[in-house]
Design a protein that fits this description.
The chain is mainly β. The chain is 5% helix and 46% strand. The chain has one domain: 6 Propeller (Neuraminidase). The termini are far apart.
């Protein structure tokens, strides 16, 4: 007889919500979507008609940046930028879903390591071109058109010098960006991970906050500039008058992805890779102090109290998230991908 203890097999994928998450989604008439480039998945989270959680996923290679704009959903992948359109009108359903996002337009950019996305006042996309350290637009004839780069970056080069990553839009214009460092040498940001992070005002080329640990996901909401101090596990805002980051909540994970619904924020958490990039960060010491392990999740944070009011916990092969977008007025979303014949048969006639 084999007396060895059989270890339980870890789940391939398990997604669970906190006890009141479904009620919160119903109350706010909200669903949301998030990307994981590590697993190459786009997830869409909503509610079934019986009030239970709906989890829908599609496979896209290295999907990262995500932004919802009207009926459109923009998403970056390994070498393309995609525009999805909701093909359902109000009151329509498709297989029990009330939003069906269909990929309609793609720009082939090459592997630019696209991070955050934005949509301007004309409905046109722009993105953070992390490889070249600039903001850019897609092009019908080129890989990208540069729009802006930090003044400390001496020239456009495919060297990921400062790890420019985050973008906050303001009234259809790019306003703030985040970067891991001010480095102007190839891959220089990796030496400044613990406290070299900055947030910049694009409109006047000034640094509005510094001393952060791998900041991500700047966003403007309710008159404040919110940002994730990712390497410290902190969600908070920049006091622009003093140039100081004010932490609102500590969350047990490496933070990336931020969206809002009223007085609540949806924040993405990732477990930490065991390599140099994610080791030795302030997050490690804070997790140890709190006797906690990093987790992969979406946290719903109440902006009024800083409490994590609700959770979506993700376990199994998905360990890292990148971006999250709120889908207001949508109960149960889905999307078409390219691995089945469904997209071949779905035809919509335009007006």
């Amino acid at each position: 007889m084999d007396s060895r203890v059989q270890q339980p097999t870890p789940p391939e994928l398990e997604i669970t919500g906190s006890r009141q998450l479904t009620g919160w989604l119903a109350e706010h008439q909200l669903s949301f979507t998030f990307t994981t480039y590590q697993a190459g998945k786009l997830f869409l989270i909503g509610l079934k008609n019986d009030g239970r959680l709906s989890v829908f996923e599609r496979t896209f290679n290295r999907c990262m940046g995500l932004v919802a704009h009207g009926r459109s959903l923009w998403m970056s992948t390994l070498y393309q930028l995609w525009r999805f359109e909701n093909s359902l009108e109000a009151g329509q359903q498709y297989q029990g879903y009330d939003a069906l996002f269909v990929p309609r337009v793609a720009y082939t950019t090459g592997d630019l390591d696209i991070h955050d996305l934005g949509v301007d006042a004309a409905g046109e996309p722009m993105f953070v071109n992390t490889l070249f350290g600039c903001l850019a637009r897609p092009s019908a004839t080129a890989s990208f058109v540069p729009l802006w780069r930090p003044p400390f970056i001496s020239r456009l080069a495919a060297e990921d010098r400062c790890h420019l990553n985050g973008l906050a839009m303001d009234a259809g214009q790019p306003r703030y960006v985040s970067a891991v460092s001010r480095s102007d040498v190839v891959d220089g940001w990796r030496d400044r991970r613990t406290d070299g992070g900055i947030v910049m005002d694009v409109s006047n080329n000034t640094v509005v906050c510094e001393g952060l640990s791998m900041p991500h996901s700047p966003r403007l909401h309710q008159g404040k500039l919110w940002v994730l101090n990712s390497g410290a596990g902190q969600f908070g805002y920049v006091d622009l008058a003093r140039g100081v980051f004010e932490a609102v909540a500590f969350l047990p994970g490496y933070l990336r992805g931020l969206a809002f619904c009223g007085d609540f924020a949806l924040v993405g958490l990732s477990t930490c890779r065991e390599n140099r990039t994610f080791s030795g960060l302030p997050l490690d010491a804070e997790l140890a102090r709190r006797d906690a392990e990093p987790r992969c999740a979406i946290a719903v944070v109440d902006l009024r109290s800083g409490d994590a009011a609700h959770w979506l916990r993700i376990e199994g092969f998905v360990r890292e998230l990148y971006d999250v977008a709120a889908l207001e007025g949508v109960q149960r979303p889905m999307a078409l991908g390219f691995k089945s014949d469904e997209i071949r048969r779905h035809i919509v006639v335009g007006a």
